[in-house]
Amino acid sequence: MSKQMRVAVYPGSFDPVTKGHMDIIQRASRQFDKLIVAVLNNTSKSPLFSVEERKELLSSATSHLDNVEIDSFRDLLVNYMVYKQADVIVRGIRSVTDFEYELQIASTNQKLNSEVETIFMMTNPKFSYLSSSVVKEIASFHGDVSDLVPTEVEKALKNKYDNPPTKN
């Protein structure tokens, strides 16, 4: 009997990907045969980076991880899980506040599709304060984000804030 491949999805906005995200990606990639990092295309938000830019930054930052695939989606996560033949959602937890929110989402996903499990991974304590919003705030004032994001993201942030789009 052949062993079924374990496929997990780590969904998020990743606007931009931080070292906290990378910590979860690296650790989750060791737990599953395949980890799909799925960028949510949320039309109700105005992200700094486009979905394609976020996918490129993630691809570059995860290029050393052979079993990580970068993708995007705009559907319900449970529908995306079925489409990708994945059975586990990976979520990073920084705090009790994160846990309360994530528990509500996990319960909703379980209600929508009882075949899908959610696992929570505690973020490394050295990244517990870190969020994409904090990174963007620091970068917008030309602060040093080199310890907070992968090198390619640091360059992309610098480029975004040094060359803002012109308004017509």
Instruction: Provide the number of structural domains.
Output: 1
Strand order of the largest sheet: 3-2-1-4-5
* Overall geometric form: globular
What is the N-to-C order of secondary-structure elements (H for helix, E for strand)?
A: EHEHEHEHEHH
Q: What's the overall average pLDDT, rounded?
A: 93
As residue ranges, the low-confidence spans are: none
* Rg, Cα atoms, Å: 16 Å
What does this entry look like structurally?
- Residues 9-137 form the Cytidyltransferase-like domain.
- It is an enzyme of class 2 (transferase).
- Belongs to the bacterial CoaD family.
- Keywords: ATP-binding, Coenzyme A biosynthesis, Cytoplasm, Magnesium, Nucleotide-binding, Nucleotidyltransferase, Transferase.
- InterPro entries: Cyt_trans-like (IPR004821), PPAT (IPR001980), Rossmann-like_a/b/a_fold (IPR014729).
- The protein has a five-stranded parallel β-sheet, sandwiched between helices.
- The mean pLDDT is 93.
- The protein has one domain: Rossmann fold (3-Layer(aba) Sandwich).
- The chain is built from six helices and five strands; from the N terminus they run βαβαβαβαβαα.
- The N and C termini lie far apart (62 Å).
- It is globular.
- Helix content is 40%, strand content 18%.
- By secondary structure, the chain is an alpha/beta fold.
- The protein has helices at residues 19-29, 51-61, 77-83, 96-112, 132-140, 151-162; strands spanning 7-12, 34-40, 68-73, 88-93, 117-122.
